[in-house]
Amino acid sequence: MDLSSFLLQQIINAVFLGSIYSLIALGYTMVYGIIELINFAHGELFTAGAFIGVIVLTALQQMGFVETHFVLTMIIVFVMSMSYVAVLGVAVEHVAYKPLRTSSRLSALLSALGMSIFLSNGMMLSQGVSDRAYPQVFGIEGIEFMGARITNGQIFIIILAVALMVGLQLFVHRTRLGKAMRATAQNKTMARILGIDIDQTIRITFMIGPALGAAAGVMVGLHYGAVRFDMGFIFMIKAFAAAILGGIGSIPGAMLGGLIIGTIEVMWAAFLPSAWKDVTTFTVLIMVLYFKPSGLLGEGTTEVRV
Amino acid sequence: MTNPQAILKLTDVHTYYGNIHALKGISCSISKGEIACLIGANGAGKSTTLMTIFGVQRASQGKILFNGKPIQDLKPEKVAALGVSQTPEGRQIFPRMSTYENLEMGAFLRRDKGEVQKDLEWVFSLFPVLKDRMGQLGGTLSGGEQQMLAIGRALMSRPELLLLDEPSLGLAPKLVEVIFETILQINQDSGTTIFLVEQNANMALGISDTGYVMETGKIVLADKSSVLLESEQVKKAYLGE
Fold first, then answer.
1. Which of A117, A154, B49, B132 is deepest in the core (most CB within 10 A)?
2. What CATH number does the domain containing A281 carry?
3. Chain A contact for B95, CB < 8 A?
4. Is the pTM of this model over 0.80?
5. B14 touches B21 (CB < 8 A)
6. Residues in CB range of A184: below 8 A, 6 or more apart
7. A8 in any annotated domain
């Protein structure tokens, strides 16, 4: 393998990992955008999505459904995982955040941490502490070009991730509810004065963000072949870094941040001692924040003129 | 005080901001189709009055009737649905939405697309500059343009009652004149009842039918605007004569 095909291979890996980080980062950034809260339970929602995926996929595989209706299987797995976690997200918001909406930020933050521990332990007790194998439905087939290789699974995951992100952009910019969500994020009192039910827009945010995280959870399971109750932690840290790097609250920022974090991690591991890859990721994050504290695409100072 | 045509009627309304007694028993009655103004110094409670009407601030006591219906316990989004709209203090433009999207949000509760389009044309005829700025982000508009956008956005809900909070604040005198002429025109074109809160007493009394003067949480004078303009008390305190 010569250098150029090696590099191409790393770019493929970077885009793959980056798009998963981006999907998770979107959940952080959307929730932060609308209620200025870091949803620490997001990593657990991601894990819950992965678990629903493995449960549904295993059941469908045992029924022999995977061989006969592959596309339908994937649709069922993703839709079930995403809807379950969307409901879970709304429940988390209702139980842990809504009652604290008018109290101090610190209370809500502690409540988020508590929710994270609660969900994590809940999954540990219900799903066990050991790895759970994901059915390997994609196999090892793939496409080779210019000496690099991309598996069918990777192609599928990248396409789905991009489709979800494009869909999200269309939703927030083209639909009535999406615009109401942006209005709520930008000015809650004004949104209410215009007749927007902000409780509803916040609920929708807590459906979409976690649902995207759940999709990422299933993707991780499909690709790496296993899930565990605490798998959310490392992805949460990376995706959170991605959201901050891109500018928390900014949807394009989360997408960009995810790609950058994925690229740094993959490239560092490819060319330099891989034990240092996480250190490098966070060093870059700190450097960017040093020069641009609001993140790459974040909104800096207040833009409203007097 | 019975006014059968009253679109908005406040009776002994009290509002607290924490421990601060901001409104100490406000009563007023605004007739359908008129322009009423509320003048007074900074901190008199003018903006609080509008926020209380809209339910952003809760009235701790008293009654607010809109078309005879009590609204003092309604949330802002419910008040909006009844046909009240507002350009609040500081304009509150959505900074990361385009001018067009800001106007669109004004019509959030409406489903009659054709009529919304007509109102959009009407707003553009009132404020032609908004049409030129259609795709520009709200946060990048000048202060005057933001004020026009705030009024335009409030009109997009086709309100029965429009609450305007200090439309002249921070604008050049020439622009203030344009804004006030447009407010008059809105009232004449559409018959929308307007409740105007202003520090610029001269301008406000000049275009309004009824005037209220507010001091430290109380309405101290209420009369026809033309009468208030001639009143010695008002002249001395608010018209700088």
1. B49
2. 1.10.3470
3. yes
4. yes
5. yes
6. A34, A191, A196, A198, A201, A202
7. yes
